[in-house]
Specification:
The complex is a heterodimer of chains A (328) and B (355). Helices cover 73% and strands 0% of the residues of chain A. Chain A contains 15 helices and no strands. The longest helix of chain A has 39 residues. The termini of chain A are close together. Chain B has two domains: 93 residues, no CATH class; 212 residues, MetI-like fold. Chain B has 15 helices and three strands. The chains are: A mainly alpha (328), B mainly alpha (355).
Chain lengths: 328, 355
């Protein structure tokens, strides 16, 4: 196990180096740089050519991209992710600010998804083939094909335009409308009201996918010999479903959990962009538009570390849950 | 005499046909192909066929490519307005018009078609008899835009998954067949592409290309969407390379390329087709998502997602959400249903269970 882990970690480091190198090369080769992107937005900030050259030197933008990448990687090894050029803050501080709002939305969505997906999946496999199950499954399938950005727009039209002025009206954008000095109770309520639409959007697609996944693995488990044995010895239908079949579907579920790790922390670019939610996904989108290389790199590094860790976690959990699987 | 047994694909088609939803989805995609092919004859302001100064022309072909529009109409200063110009400049002319007289790229002016009012602009364009799906901020008819946008939706699915399928099958096949350090390299490559967030990769590459067109978008979606296909192909090749018929082929002296293409690939194709079909659905989602965020093809390419983009700034125009949103949803649903039907029809394990 230890050698396996070591090997996976070493391979992971090589992969990470390749990924960051590609992202850095792409970012540096996009037209414009953080300075020109800022000046393009605001003509009053025009500066002279000398100042421009001096600032380029100060931010290390005069170097070629391979040099710049090596410098970034060297700083990373010393534990320094650099400072954002457009926001004048350390990248770690920026990520720290944005991770809370993202976790708030994706965490709530995550809890809701699993609270609903497991019963739904079990229900679907228990009633498999009957009319009510076919209808539910079709509905879930339709939901799974429903694009989030279309759903987000529909919800915005519904709650912000058609229900305007009623008690059901929900805020469209941002995280809070109250000033920062408002007392805690109303602020929590306000943030909760702002959260409803983004959380709904993030929940429904995964809910549909996960409950279908549970149903599929359950159908596989139900056909196994041990389920027939359990039935033959006289166990009731629910006992067979829970104690014998469901416990054996936990393995694929664990894998699914591991693979959803990056989305949980990384947030969703499209949903955060539509609802202007101040989270990680939006930061990523903004930093690409602002050509803010240090922030792009910091976030890309975080996303890929999470993806690799999620895969590793899934594989390790897999052989912990199922002794038949060996790592080598 | 013994009856010859049916082949694998005939059997699969038989099982597929038993699923009404999957068949409905197939019919829907066929309908989309028809709409895309005949888009200029369905909605447009240029005649499908007309007789002008003693010659026959088909100006509607100009919707496919501007060069196909007959030069005589440019010379005679038609400026895109056909009905009045045809009648004025050649009283003896006749024309067959598209089913629906609205243009996907510009607003129709008052009396351009005798007796027709001007298209309403800004937030006034709610659905009406002249504009069944309403008009956008610039007064362009939404139905005409959607009819012409069908081409983009279909092409995105087929072209990008064609690219992704080719890359995925080649990388997966090489890795799975040769194993060892080759497999190690291809697996790392797959992992690297998987780890970079797709949307970020696409946005960055689109920014680097100087004049991105819809074809660039398709190519990029294809080049980032092959990882799942590669992993599955690798697994299938790993499984099949030890089988007896592969060994037999090797024994009679077939080279690796021949074994991979002629012997293993046809047997691995069915499970690989399933993620490709699902991939078409997600490619359409990605393209419309990009257009929605404002990174779509530049005008005049009409994409369903870019109509949605217009609704973001003015949510009161609900018709800009409802119609294109439903079209994207139905198309994605159709491809997902086809993929599932294909899976159930070709996967032997599921087949046994259904008996």
């Amino acid at each position: 196990m230890a050698t396996y882990l070591l090997r996976r970690l070493l391979l992971g480091c090589v992969t990470l180096a390749a990924i960051t190198c590609i992202v850095y090369a792409l970012a540096r080769n996009m037209p414009g740089n953080p300075l020109s992107a800022q000046m393009g937005e605001d003509p009053s900030r025009k500066i002279t050519a000398e100042d421009y050259a001096r600032m380029q030197r100060a931010y290390g933008l005069d170097k070629s991209w391979p040099e710049g990448y090596l410098q970034w990687a060297g700083n990373l090894l010393r534990g320094d992710l650099g400072r954002s050029i457009t926001r004048k803050q350390p990248v770690t501080t920026l990520i720290g600010e944005r991770i809370g709002p993202t976790l708030l939305v994706s965490g709530s969505a995550f809890v809701l998804i699993w609270l609903a997906a497991v019963p739904l999946g079990l229900y679907a496999s228990a009633r498999s083939g009957r009319m009510d199950e076919r209808a539910t499954s079709l509905l879930l399938y339709a939901l799974y094909s429903f694009p989030t950005f279309v759903a987000a727009l529909f919800l915005q039209v519904l709650f912000a335009v058609w229900l305007r002025g009623t008690a059901w009206e929900l805020p469209l954008f941002g995280m809070s409308d109250l000033p920062a000095d408002a007392s805690l109770g109303p602020r929590i309520l306000d943030v909760a009201r702002h959260m409803i639409l983004p959380v709904t959007c993030q929940t429904y697609v995964s809910l549909a996918y996960d409950s279908r996944f549970i149903k599929a693995t359950m159908e596989e488990a139900i056909r196994q010999d041990y389920v027939r044995t359990a039935r033959a010895k006289g166990a009731g239908p629910w006992r067979v479903l829970f104690r014998h079949a469901f416990r054996n579907t936990l393995i694929p579920l664990v894998t699914l959990l591991g693979l959803s790790l990056p989305a949980l922390i990384g947030g969703s670019i499209i949903i955060e962009q539509i609802f202007t939610w101040p989270g990680m996904g939006r930061l990523f989108f903004e930093s690409i538009r602002e050509r803010d290389y240090p922030t792009i790199m910091g976030l890309a590094l975080m996303f890929s570390v999470l993806t690799l860790l999620g895969q590793l976690l899934a594989d390790v959990l897999y052989c912990l849950v199922d002794p038949r699987v060996s790592v080598a | 005499m013994m009856q010859r047994s049916h082949g694998f694909w005939v059997e699969a088609w038989r099982r597929y046909r038993r699923r009404p939803l999957a068949m409905a989805a197939l019919a829907f995609v066929a309908l989309l192909i028809l709409v895309a092919t005949f888009a200029p004859a369905i909605a447009g302001t240029k005649p499908v066929l007309c007789r002008y100064k003693g010659q026959l022309y088909a100006p509607c072909l100009g919707y496919f490519d501007r060069r196909f529009e007959p030069a005589i109409f440019t010379k005679d200063k038609f400026r895109g307005t056909y009905p009045r110009n045809l009648a004025e400049k050649d009283p003896g002319s006749w024309a067959i018009w598209p089913l629906f007289f609205q243009d996907p790229y510009r607003s129709v002016r008052a009396n351009e078609w005798p007796g027709r009012p001007e298209n309403p602009a800004m937030d006034q364009g709610r659905p009406s008899w002249t504009n069944p799906f309403g008009t956008d901020q610039a007064g362009v008819d939404v139905l005409a835009k959607m009819v012409h946008g069908t081409t983009v939706a279909l092409l995105v699915g087929f072209v990008s998954m064609g690219i992704a399928g080719t890359i995925g099958i080649i990388v997966g096949a090489i890795g799975g067949y040769f194993g060892g350090w080759v497999d190690m390299l291809t697996s790392r490559l797959t992992e690297i592409v998987m780890c970079v967030p797709t949307l970020v990769l696409i946005l960055a590459i689109l920014a680097i290309i100087e004049k991105p067109t819809i074809w660039h978008t398709m190519a990029i979606i294809g080049m980032t969407g092959w990882t799942g296909i590669a992993r599955l192909t690798r697994g299938e090749f790993l499984r099949l390379k030890g089988s007896e018929y592969v060994m037999a082929a090797r024994a009679v002296g077939a080279g690796p390329a021949r074994i991979m293409l002629r012997h293993i690939l046809p047997n691995a194709l069915a499970p690989i087709l399933v993620p490709i079909t699902f991939g078409i659905a997600s490619a359409i989602l990605t393209e419309s998502g990009l257009s929605f965020l404002g990174f779509g093809p530049p005008p005049p390419s009409a994409s369903w997602g870019s109509i949605l983009n217009g609704a973001r700034s003015n949510l009161g125009m609900w018709w800009l959400v409802l119609f294109p949103g439903t079209a994207i949803f139905l198309t994605v649903l159709a491809y997902n249903l086809i993929g599932e039907g294909l899976q159930e029809a070709t996967d032997p394990r599921l087949r046994e269970a259904r008996k």
